[in-house]
């Protein structure tokens, strides 16, 4: 459902994403990891069609995100690390706005929103203005809105930021349940235990290059570390840093 072919993006002399090749099938929960500045957010923006690559292609559900953006975005939900909300709207008004973008009827939006508000504990916020909501509540609202149109692909960047443990558990449960139901989830996070808990496959990006991809057990084997994912991650990225310093 997500595929990239030699995807490359540079800013001047800086290569932010370097010849990235991914093939993530339907229903897979894929965790995307990397140090700060590795190119994760640039990759996500390329997948969502917000940036144009200098070379290579990205496909969502078989649609080239650059050549067929409307078709690709119909089946895609993208939640950035710093999402934008219309602060003067109430949560249901925001959901109706999002639903209209995807061609959903009012009754369909209300029904789906009722279900999502119940799941994410948003019922008490219905009549509040979004600007008065806490960061965690806004985050839950954004994720709920991303699920409104029943996307086949979810791309989500640092979804647990600002969430209390109970809300974080709800989000993890919902995303995992969607994955098991056939939705492809692409999650970028710095919280390695989330990846270890949820992911079917893990990809590690460093300095714009995909340096490892596989199950957690496979990453342990490649890294030579038998402990937690953090140990494998640090070993793999440390090896890359050391190699780059050799003459």
Could you explain the architecture of this structure?
With about 250 residues, the chain is an alpha/beta fold. It is about 40% helix and about 25% strand. The protein is built from nine helices and ten strands. It has a six-stranded mixed beta sheet, sandwiched between helices. A four-stranded antiparallel beta sheet has the order 2-1-4-5. β7, α6 (about 165-180) and β8 (about 185-190) form a beta-alpha-beta unit. α4 crosses α5 (about 135-145) and α8 packs across α9 (about 230-245). The longest helix has 17 residues, at about 230-245. The chain is globular. The relative contact order is 0.16.
DSSP E strands, number = 10
Task: Determine the number of helices (DSSP H or I, runs of at least 4 residues).
Answer: 9
Which CATH class of the largest domain applies here?
Alpha Beta
Helix content: 40-55%
Strand content: 15-25%
CATH topology of the largest domain: Rossmann fold
Q: Under the CATH scheme, which architecture of the largest domain would be assigned?
A: 3-Layer(aba) Sandwich
- Distance linking N and C termini: 40 Å
Instruction: Provide the residue-averaged pLDDT.
Output: 93
Q: What's the structural blueprint in terms of helices and strands?
A:
Elements: E1 2-11, E2 14-24, E3 29-33, H1 40-47, E4 55-60, E5 63-64, H2 69-74, E6 76-79, H3 91-101, H4 106-120, H5 135-146, E7 153-157, H6 165-180, E8 184-188, H7 192-198, E9 201-206, E10 209-214, H8 216-223, H9 229-245
Parallel strand pairs: 3-8, 3-9, 6-7, 7-8
Antiparallel strand pairs: 1-2, 1-4, 4-5, 9-10
Give me some keywords for this one:
247 residues; alpha/beta; Rossmann fold; four-stranded antiparallel beta sheet
């Amino acid at each position: 459902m997500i595929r990239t072919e030699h995807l490359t993006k540079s800013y001047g002399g800086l290569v932010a994403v370097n010849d990235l090749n991914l093939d993530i099938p339907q229903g897979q929960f894929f965790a995307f990891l990397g140090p700060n500045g590795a190119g994760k957010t640039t990759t996500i923006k390329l997948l969502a069609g917000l940036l144009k690559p200098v070379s290579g292609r990205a496909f969502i559900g078989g649609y080239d995100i650059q050549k067929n953006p409307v078709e690709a975005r119909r089946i895609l939900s993208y939640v950035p690390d710093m999402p934008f909300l219309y602060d003067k709207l109430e949560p249901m008004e925001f959901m109706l706005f999002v639903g209209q973008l995807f061609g959903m009827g009012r009754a369909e939006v209300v029904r789906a929103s009722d279900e999502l508000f119940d799941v994410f504990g948003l019922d008490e916020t219905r009549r509040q203005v979004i600007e008065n909501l806490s960061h965690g509540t806004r985050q839950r609202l954004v994720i709920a809105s991303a699920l409104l149109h029943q996307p086949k692909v979810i791309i989500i960047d640092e979804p647990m930021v600002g969430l209390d443990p109970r809300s974080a558990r709800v989000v993890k449960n919902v995303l995992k349940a969607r994955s098991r139901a056939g939705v492809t989830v692409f999650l970028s996070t710095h919280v390695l235990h989330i990846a270890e808990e949820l992911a079917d496959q893990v990809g590690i990006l460093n300095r714009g290059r995909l340096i490892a991809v596989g199950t957690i057990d496979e990453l342990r084997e490649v890294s030579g570390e038998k402990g937690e994912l953090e140990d494998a991650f640090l070993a793999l990225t440390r090896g890359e840093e050391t190699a780059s310093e050799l003459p």
